[in-house]
Amino acid sequence: MKQQVHFEDWGMIDYKSAWDLQEKVLQNNVALKTNWRNQNTTQDISTLPTTHHLIFCEHKHVYTLGKSGDIENVLLSEDELDQQNIQFFKTNRGGDITYHGAGQLVGYPILDLEKFKTDIGLYLRNIEEVIILSIKEFGIIGQRSTGETGVWIDADIQGKERKICAMGVRCSRWITMHGFALNVNTDLNYFSNIIPCGIQGKNVTSVEKEINRKVDPEEMKFIVKQKFEQVFDVSLITES
After folding, report:
1. How far apart are CA 229 and CA 115, in angstroms?
2. Whole-prediction pTM value?
3. Active site residues
4. pLDDT band at 46 (very low <50, low <70, confident <90, very high)
């Protein structure tokens, strides 16, 4: 029987609210796991009471900096950020600087990897695979870039590399949070105010830009959910 993942679509939500809600789910799972370990002598992983979640949302204009990121990759001052009504947060995820805004599909998987495989590298590759398979449905060939997390187009053609999906995760007691940001109909101009992911000389793109038309957001969500179920071999259960 496939593992179940609870799916929720939070719609448009400010970044900090989404972060707090994720943290609440993660900490609840951590508490469940800690209590289980204290009381369970068999340590049969199949009896772990933790739950899996996949959350979709969009954020209002915001730049977020990963815990290993360089603040110098933000090219605007605090006053300029305020003038353009863009929020900024230092986060506890991996990765460097990225942008979130309307037209982007943000996905936050909160999974207990002890019920899958305790391998962060594999988890990241699986998230990349979800996106690669999803954009393939639109005729876009996504790739991995050696030494860089995320999904790219023309990753092996110098000067033409462009990132279509950024990723950054946190893992506590093998429970994940944060996730991916797929540029669907995103206004790419906002990326000009940062050095995206701290990588010089490489561009950012979107599904809309690659196929020269806007994409129905609900169609993209449907496809990504399908591919997530396929890659992780799970069943998504929609929360009412």
Report:
1. 15
2. 0.94
3. 197
4. confident
